[in-house]
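Quick entry between incubations.
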Amino acid sequence: MNQHIKIAVLGGGGRTGQYLVNHLLEKGYSLKILLRNLPISDESSDPFILNLSNPLVEIVTGDAVCFDDIKRLLFDCQAIISTVGQRPGEPMVASSATENILKAMNEYGIHRYILVAGINIDTPFDKKGSQTKAATEWMKNTFPEIHTDRAKSYDLLTKSDVEWTLVRLPMIEYSDEILAAQASIVDCPGAGISTKNIAIFLEEQLSDKTYIRKAPFLYNI
Ligand SMILES: NC(=O)c1ccc[n+]([C@@H]2O[C@H](COP(=O)([O-])OP(=O)(O)OC[C@H]3O[C@@H](n4cnc5c(N)ncnc54)[C@H](OP(=O)(O)O)[C@@H]3O)[C@@H](O)[C@H]2O)c1
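Done. Structure below.
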């Protein structure tokens, strides 16, 4: 089906990333997944653990803040999807990962980069309602370093030549449930989004050009 398309996945071992990996494999893509550590699990029925031994999966052990690791990850890939998230006490990851990815994309001639962030990112196209504005202010005041780092990542994207899509998410609900969902480039009137909806939307962006160089909010309605 899509085996000839190889996707580099970052954050694939995380809570949202596992749904994404499972969904991409259902769709038949070949994957290179960056993991800092291999998951330890006795849960042989866990679909994510089972999928890591899928012949369409290649694990790349490494860190998103290391350019050489990103180069090994992106080699031979046609697109990148990232659900990388900040871990407490670690160096800021969002802008470093984006900087490394953009540089490696440029070296390899890869065009498509799809990533996620929170609804606190501001863009010049926003018409944020009071709920989204309040969430943005809360994030700015509570996690200023993470907020600034995410904004820097957005800035790097807008200055690049690549076909990026930054998907802005409200509270994630970790669920296999497919609910009604909507995307908007101006505001996020929904309070939550299911992980399965995120996985579906991210995969759709591989072929859909609607949100190229845009930062849609995605939410359940
Ligand atoms: N949770 C929410 O409600 C919410 C809302 C809006 C947006 N978001 C965003 O959505 C994304 C996914 O959220 P989540 O809750 O699924 O995140 P998560 O479970 O915390 O997963 C984050 C992933 O990023 C990886 N990671 C972090 N630093 C890394 C590095 N330096 N190199 C390589 N991998 C690294 C982690 O790997 P390790 O296991 O090795 O640490 C993990 O796989 C994040 O960007 C988050 O900010 C979340």
